[in-house]
Design goal:
Blueprint: H1 3-13, H2 17-39, H3 42-58, H4 69-131
Helix pairs in contact: 1-2, 2-3, 2-4, 3-4
Length: 133
């Protein structure tokens, strides 16, 4: 592990804002590029990386990386991107089911409307036949 990474980890553990700033300066852009290559959306990539940095800062007192900081960050981004893609896939499936449900309801309504129409027509014929002199 590089000396700079060790200093960042040590600084983060003690709540040093400068260490956090250094982490962002060194790794934000490369991580966004990497995340963007997975999710194919720069804005989502930025959100993913920002969320990771926020979690690191929120849990800085227990942040302890014993391997390469770079590897840890890229692995974390990779996993978060996969989670994001799964979430997006689930959302699109829910939308598809919702759309299918709406189409089904419209078809049922159409059938009910047709049934109602034919029932009304049938009753009108009955009434006409009854009223005829």
């Amino acid at each position: 592990m590089e000396q700079v990474d060790r200093e960042i980890i040590k600084g983060l553990a003690s709540g040093d804002q400068q260490a956090y700033d250094m982490l962002i300066r060194l790794y934000f852009q490369p991580l966004v590029i990497y995340a963007g290559s997975i999710v194919n959306d720069v804005e989502h990539a930025k959100d993913i990386v920002q969320d990771i940095f926020l979690k690191i800062w929120s849990n800085h007192s227990v942040f302890n990386v014993t391997t390469s900081l770079r590897s840890y960050l890229f692995r974390t981004v990779h996993n978060s991107c996969i989670d994001h893609l799964r979430s997006e896939k689930a959302k699109s499936q829910i939308k598809a089911v919702s759309y299918d449900d709406q189409v089904f309801r419209e078809k049922v309504y159409d059938i009910q409307s047709k049934d109602s129409f034919f029932n009304t027509l049938f009753h009108m014929k009955l009434i006409r036949n009854y009223i005829k002199p």
